[in-house]
Specification:
The protein is mostly helical and 113 residues long. It is built from 6 helices and 2 strands; from the N terminus they run αααββααα. It has a two-stranded antiparallel sheet with strand order 1-2. The two termini are 38 Å apart.
Length: 113
Amino acid sequence: MDVLYQKGRASAADIQEAIADAPGYSAIRALLRILEEKGHVRHEADGAKYVYLPTGSIEKAKRSAVRHMIDTFFQGNIETAVAALIDGKSKRISSAELDRIAKLIAEAKAARK
């Protein structure tokens, strides 16, 4: 999916070429078929080959992936997931990022009133 979002459209061969240590062509085709069955991609004929396109926006995919991660690893508890990301020992998050997160939280609280 990363390759499709980056390129906008790609054949199975294009996807295989773009992935380091890519699986075989047949495995990529099988994955694309599964993604198409689930509604994540669609294909168009381009001569003798199929070109695949994502069906939704990357923003929608990000939200879905984060929801799935929170449900899977944090039993749906958003607070626990956020706490795991911003624990006091983490050097990966800057003060500016913490300020932006605080602002988002304040905006979410205001929207509930």
